[in-house]
Write a structure and sequence with these properties.
The protein has 2 helices and 5 strands. The chain is α+β, with helices and mostly antiparallel strands and 163 residues long. The protein has a 5-stranded mixed β-barrel.
Length: 163
């Protein structure tokens, strides 16, 4: 009997591995059900779903030129309906987030960084968006310059000072 892609057959599980299960289809033909094709849910351990010598209904997914048969148990059973999602509310208040810079390598931030932020917040009151944006860009450019200068001097990077 020739096995055709898309046909649904019954077979017997002959072996279980961590990546799938081998199913005997009769006529000395064996196919593999990959672990992702066992159930419609996450399968961590295939033995929780099928055992050796179980009779299973499988769908033929593919047959390659070497005769390897790819099978699916999941596609023979109807898909479960998706759980209904809660409707989004459009009139909810947006959450305010406070920006906190990450601390790299467990080093604490210097007091200088905190003072710089506080001075920016004091200076920015009553300014237009464009003015605030230009001030932010200027301050961030200064921070990048300081960071580059400190980093290059520590590791002897490109064009670092030679003493």
């Amino acid at each position: 009997m020739a096995i055709e892609v898309g046909s649904v057959l019954e077979g017997t599980v002959t072996g279980i591995t961590k990546f799938g299960a081998f199913v005997d289809l009769g006529n000395k033909q064996t196919g593999l059900v990959h672990i992702s094709e066992v159930a419609n849910e996450y399968v961590e351990n295939i033995s929780d779903f099928i055992k050796e010598a179980d009779t299973v209904k499988v769908k033929v997914l593919s047959v390659d030129e070497k005769g390897k048969i790819s099978l699916s148990i999941k596609q023979t059973s109807p898909k479960p309906e998706a759980a209904p999602r809660a409707p989004k509310t459009e009139n909810r208040e947006p959450r305010e987030r406070e920006f906190r810079p990450r601390q790299h390598d467990g080093h604490a931030r210097s007091a200088h960084d905190g003072n710089r932020r506080n001075s920016f917040e004091r200076k920015s009151g009553g300014m237009s968006f464009e003015d605030k944006m230009s001030r932010f860009l200027k301050d961030s450019e200064e921070r990048l310059t300081d960071l580059k200068r400190n980093t290059e001097s520590k590791r002897g990077g490109r064009g670092g000072r030679r003493d």
